[in-house]
Amino acid sequence: MDTRKRLQALQRAASPVASASMALDAAAVPDHPACMIGSGQRCEHALVDRDLNRLLFDYEQKVRSRFTRIVDVLKRISTYQHDENFTERAQQHAREQLGFDLPSQVLEDAWVCGLDLSALHSRCTFSSLKSCVENAQAEQAGWRQRMPLDENFLRSCGYHTVDISPCSDGRLQGVSPYVLRILPGPNVWVKAYAGALFDVEVDVSDWAQREVERLSGAMVDGERLNYLKIAVYHFSSSSPNGQGCAAHGSNDRQATEAALQRLQHELREAIDRTFGAGAAPDVLLIGVDTDLDALRIHLPDGFGEVNPHRYFETAQIYRDTVGLSPEAARARIAEIVADAEGMGGWGQGNGSMREGMRRLVLALAEANLSQIEYVIKHHTGRYATIGHDEECIVAGEAVRVLQLRNLFYFAHLDTIEEGTNDMDVGINIFRKLNIAHGLPVPVLVHFEYDARIPEARERAIARGRRVRDAIQARYSDLVAPGLLNCAIAVSDRTGGECCAFVTDDVGGHH
Ligand SMILES: [Zn+2]
């Protein structure tokens, strides 16, 4: 049972809304996951890294248990909230089970009109995020060492920077380490936007900054390396009209074409027109089936142009190559990719993709087989919750060390004005997830700063406060009844301080 359903059970009798949504999930079970356990089909692929999968699963369990335990603790302490030594007992319980203190004011006020479980739930969510950040280095060390697409590999394909824009949807928040098996690092950026509709001006500026470093000789091997932009849209194979991308009305085709338009006709053109033809970075368009974490990879042609009809799918590759030896499977994958590349008609391209791009595409296809099997082995072939199940919203810049499916909904923004659409989509998701069950929406406003630049930290905090104030003003209908709680945190981009909460702002409304 998930966190919210359990807390809801604790607060009041199960509501018909929850049962209806659970029934809907059950009805949406796909008929054809990549591989059905118990179907007699062999579900062990020769190219899967099972040790890496185990390490990733251990990490996923550790992170999720922090949030599951919140409900157990709140449930427990609410049973003795009228006892004489309540505050001390509750704090001791929280310290033992959660590893942090509860806000004592909330506990001390409990005798007046009962324990404010909603406020505590938000505060515990923020504190648990903080614990995930603090323990990230130790808890991620194992899988980080085994990640196949690390910086060296990306450089061998010809890329100094990989800039990934998935949709803000929580189901894509683990896309880099889990679905793509690309090691998150200083030169792998994840900037999520509703519908994968990234900000072209921000990207031009990020690209230009790396160009300066490359051309000034500050980058090793800079003369042969390029910048790669990846847009990641998503769809749901088992519930195409219900659990696809909310920003595109669950319309698969619209999600594909909108992301393609932005990559090809906006970003590439913007850079070619500003800096001269041929300056544009390489681009790649990838679709994720969020039920299975399987990929649809669109192949660039000899001119780097991507096409909505020229692609291959890794779920099909898994089925076609399971049971083959590693060598035979690799040869078959290369054939499938070459076939997709050579297709005529609507998928016709102009020449073959660059060899570095081919190397990357083949590696992505192979690495994703491990993720497909991860979902088969650890999530019974498809995720139990194929829809939204995020714990909170993160607005601003990504907390780089936190990348896990459905941990949060992420809206990349500098000001609330430009991020309005992303925030509205997120708030609407949480109206169903939390508010419908009487739980507030926790919103973490997070910005990075560069510790080498004087006053940068103060400016990041000031920006956080402005965005927090704007969010509270925009959703004032939720703030008044205590259904939206904001916290502000900042991180040093160069690696020092990570996700430090601005203490006077934690919790917001109480
Ligand atoms: Zn989406």
How many discrete structural domains? 4
Specify the overall morphology.
globular
The termini sit apart by 28 Å
Q: Uncertain spans, ≥5 residues at pLDDT below 50?
A: 5-31, 505-510
Bound ligands, named by name, code or SMILES: zinc ion
Beta-strand proportion: 5-15%
Largest sheet: 6 strands, mixed
**Helix-residue proportion:** 40-55%
Oligomeric category: single chain
Compute the number of helices: 17
Structural overview:
By secondary structure, the chain is of the alpha/beta class. The protein has four domains: 1-30, no CATH class; 50-147, Carboxysome Shell Carbonic Anhydrase, N-terminal helical domain (Four Helix Bundle (Hemerythrin (Met), subunit A)), CATH 1.20.120; 149-378, no CATH class; 388-510, 60s Ribosomal Protein L30, Chain: A (2-Layer Sandwich), CATH 3.30.1330. The chain is 47% helix and 13% strand. β3, α11 (252-275) and β4 form a beta-alpha-beta unit. Residues 167, 169, 195, 234, 245-247 line the site of zinc ion. Zinc ion binds next to loops.
